[in-house]
Design a protein that fits this description.
Helices cover 77% and strands 0% of the residues. The chain is mainly α. The longest helix is centred in the C-terminal third of the chain and has 33 residues, at 315-347.
């Protein structure tokens, strides 16, 4: 059998069936979680479920545009009121990365640079790229981030479903709901142009942040080309789930069991610290606790914002937290790595 021909149809079919099953049984964010878990299981068992490179880009573009459409002028005013808490969220994310790197360095048997970039709460691709530049073990960095995303994208939505956190932050729901297919086509054309520009400039997360930026600029200017059809949002989630799930190749959990075990402990600690910080900050900031929890969660931009979108929990606020966190982590990762490495050499 020609695996080149069959690997994409098998992966797409697995992702689609997984999403349908997840939706049928009532799993949270079923189109993301179902496709991710299904393709991960198939991939771990050696089936060819590789996702084409276009898959993740298309999914991220859809999500970026969808998120940007929430940023109405009223929401922009609201976000300006939360600038201090966004700054606090940046510091908190960097702190979680520092704690995780010390755990991995002490207990996982890896050098500090590898531990640092495996723990930093930036995007997996950005951290892997920076790790490669610094001479770290890139495969271990990628494995650590893959496990982190898998844990958080399963634990957090299930916890939110158990707690009944849904449709609580209604202030973000005042947005355009009219679908215009011509306007939507123009919107995606602009999103593609911005994504390519971000990619050309080698800026972070181009296929999320480029479409997100143009959608925000249009929406905040009261220019509404079209709302996002629900079916397209589901397709975007499915594509991202497929792209994440196919990373778990056969033998993944046997590749570095000590590292992955420490990563699992580190992620669990991060979630516990996030819950504590969320409880404290929510009580004094006025931000609804479920929204703040997603904003501070150590998950990826796409996964946590999709969760916020599906559950209708303060999408612009959650997006603002994660975008600012990404900028802060990526902007400081190299400098802080050198500082921490020097500090450890002096004190250990």
């Amino acid at each position: 059998m020609n695996t080149t021909f069959t690997k994409y149809p098998i992966g797409l079919a697995g992702a689609f069936v997984g999403a349908l099953v997840a939706n049928t049984v009532g799993l949270p964010i079923p189109w993301l979680l179902g496709s991710l878990l299904a393709t991960a299981v198939l991939s771990l068992n050696g089936l060819p479920v590789n996702a084409p490179g276009l898959c993740r880009k298309a999914g991220l573009t859809i999500i970026g545009v969808s998120l940007g459409l929430y940023f109405t002028p009223d929401m922009a005013v609201l976000l300006l009121e939360y600038w201090f808490w966004l700054l606090l969220g940046m510091v908190f994310s960097i702190t979680l990365g520092v704690i995780g790197s010390l755990l991995l360095y002490r207990f996982a048997g890896v050098d500090f640079v590898t531990a640092w970039f495996a723990s930093a709460m930036g995007g997996a691709s950005e951290m892997a790229h920076m790790a490669d530049q610094k001479g770290a073990q890139v495969d271990k960095v990628v494995s650590a981030h893959s496990l982190r995303v898998l844990m958080i994208v399963t634990i957090v939505p299930f916890f939110y479903q158990y707690m009944g956190y849904q449709n609580i932050d209604n202030s973000v729901l005042q947005q355009n709901t009219q679908i215009h297919w011509g306007g939507l086509l123009l919107l995606f054309g602009l999103a593609y142009a911005f994504a390519r520009f971000f990619e050309w400039r080698s800026w972070s997360n181009p296929w999320t942040f480029g479409p997100l930026l143009i959608a925000i600029l249009l929406t905040i200017s009261d220019i509404h080309l079209s709302a996002m059809p629900p079916v397209i949002s589901k397709i975007g989630q499915l594509l991202i789930g497929w792209a994440l799930g196919n990373k778990f190749s056969q033998g993944f959990f046997k590749s570095a069991p000590r590292l992955l075990s420490v990563v699992a402990v580190s992620v669990t600690m991060s979630l516990a610290l996030t819950a504590l910080a969320t409880y404290i900050v929510a009580s004094i900031s006025g931000i609804p606790l479920p929204t703040l929890g997603l904003g501070l969660s150590p998950g990826g931009v796409a996964e946590m914002t999709i969760t916020a979108k599906v559950l209708q929990l303060g999408v612009p606020i959650v997006t603002a937290f994660h975008v600012s966190r990404m900028v802060a982590v990526i902007g400081t990762a190299g400098i802080l790595c050198r500082f921490m490495e020097g500090w450890l050499k002096r004190h250990m």
